Amino acid sequence: MKEKSRECLNSCIYKYLTVIAAALVIMIKSMFFLAMLRTQNSSSLDFERMYFTPPPMWAHIAFVVLVVSFSFLFKRKGRNIYLILLNMVVSFLLLFDIWYFRANGTFLSFRHILYPDIFNPLGKNLFLVQPIDVVFFIDFIAIALIYIRQGKKKVSVKRQTFAFAFTFVFSVITIISSHYYIDIKNATNGEKMLFQVAWAPFQTMSNMSPLGYHGYDIYKAIYEKNAVKLDNKEVNNIKSWFESNKENLPDNKYKGMMEGKNVIFIQVESLENFVVGQKVYGQEITPNLNRLINNGLYFNSIHEQNNVGTSSDADLMVNTGILPIRDGSTFFNHPVTKYTSLPRLLGEKGYHSISTHPEVAGNWNWAEAHKGSLGFNEIWDIHQFNVDEQIGLGMSDGSYLRQIADKLKNQKQPFYAYMVTLTSHGPFDMPEKYKYLSLPEEFDKTILGAYFQSIRYTDEQIGAFIKKLDDQGQLKNSVIVIYGDHTGVHKFYPDRLKEVKLEGDWWQKDDKKVPFIIYNPELKGETIDKFGGQIDIMPTVAYIMGVDRSKFENSTMGRVLVNTERNATVLNYGQVVGLPKDEKEESLLNNALKVADEFIRGNYLKQVEK
Fold first, then answer.
1. Where is the Sulfatase N-terminal domain (predicted)?
2. Whole-prediction pTM value?
């Protein structure tokens, strides 16, 4: 009797122990993976920083239980094979993920199967093995020993349909309820996130867990691919919008005035227009930009139009003249939508285009989108630079711009170089040695004082960059385009601004304006006071570089600000600013956000080319 009871107990333990053990192993490997992400070269384990924010652990566990639950549909041998194969698939997925992350700062995605052209956009070596990678496979020795030992025992394990149904349904309900509680109801007040894509892929991975990340990625890639199928009526409506948006004006003196010169874009982090030309305690905040305006076209009424993609939306708009999508980040959701982009337009004139960010390629998915959507010839991420100085979020503007100048010295001309700065990102913490403004201590500690110091620092580095181009003999043959990616201190710190005490009201208004400067030492300084937005930068620069309007007016929403009779634009949330000349223009602006959303999500240009 005791022998039968022991056998029954052993059989019961065997039925569930292998399943529980497999779930624990997958969970532990997933935690090891997360603990690797924020270490140097992802080559060690840091369990203190494995989660970017407090994760919904119940959902993480549910993802593992979900995939393991299918093992109950198999009998003894089949169950063992399923669990071993599942463990092996997860192990290799985590291994390949960490290799891809070391190279690109993001992870493998189902979109790489749908759109293979954006896989590994920088063309890097992906075989980046580290000794720590063995943690994904060390358990297989133990599994082999257990399997050999258990193989000698004749234990009957039947298919357990009820166990499958219970664990499957329980895990699905847990995941759905977690999504509702965290993402929809926001019961944690933003403390936790689950199915929400963050700017940095490692944060998204931390929120979702590896299995949750890839499950959601497959769903999202398929959904976005099939979400919008433009019918003939919608295609015609978009065509009609662009037709109505055209301005049939004769060319003027600005057409082609800089044709043939190199084009260099500097997208400045958080640069607002109100600092340009202003002084604080008797000192210029932007002395170098002020000097450039003396030999440049200065557009003083340009408004930010970014949506949730923030800086990446600026990348999109200034290169395509198209507003971002309404729901989510354009670069994450639609990295292969085709545009009539500035790199392509200049490429037709023999330009080699380079896009560069002082960060990993995966942040905001910028590298995939710059290659797949915008059509840049070459991409440089943080790995192409010597990170010899860091300030705030990453590489200092001084080091970055200095190295860019060195690289451009050897570029075949003409080229289009697109770059972004980072140091003036909030919260604007500058080292004392780089505080070029002499401010009263009390004011210097305010958010506005900190903002002025960070902008003054970046302004100094832009001046040094331009001087270096001049020393290299490239400046006269180059057009420098400088603008803000979005507003900064007013956008993110309005409450802290209320505590600031400073004379005058010139700094108080949140007018949503960013500066836009087109500079060349041979230009005559001119201020152009036209209401515009970031979508107007691309067509304006293209026109000055000699590109015919016919090349972009059927697929670009912006205006040529140096040849326009219109004086209004639309902000991100639909507000029209400026003075629309008639009801037709006002209607165009009111419909612009919807048209842009359909243009991008429906991949409009691909459809009309068919």
1. 261-547
2. 0.94
